[in-house]
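We modelled each protein-ligand pair independently. The example shown here corresponds to the zinc ion entry; the chain sequence is given first, followed by the ligand as SMILES.
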Amino acid sequence: MRWDATTSGSAKAPRFVPAPFGTAVMRGLRNRCPYCGVGRVFAGYLSLVPECSNCHAPLGRLRADDAPPYFTIFLVGHILVPPVFWVEKAYEPPMWIHMVVWLPLFTILCILLLRPIKGGVVGWMSTLGIVSVEDDEEEAPPAAVAPPPRGLPDRNA
Ligand SMILES: [Zn+2]
């Protein structure tokens, strides 16, 4: 699938047809381009590819920002906090047992879930059309500014 150039307002900011919400999120969760479902979303663990290798959608411009860690912490907390309370209530283990067991579990689960959740958020962003515009805006050269006058103003002039 290519960009829909027919609805493009300008050559620099092509518009594209996003997939439906559920499809885009599921594709993102599976590390697939939310637009075509073929190309990959991630170049590394969490860094996005600049553009899809298949449809050339600028995936690197879909900014997930802080949403993936928020959703990851929310989900992992809801998965692990009930067992923490259950173990405490049932066995009353010493605090060091809690630290040795639960902290690594929280860490591992967050590491495992952060990437697919970020992919899902990128898919969600694609349906909303939220892209960064920083790359599109060409910076105008700074206007020449006269230096401020030095010293006191000349009262005789
Ligand atoms: Zn694609």
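The chain is about 45% helix and 0% strand.
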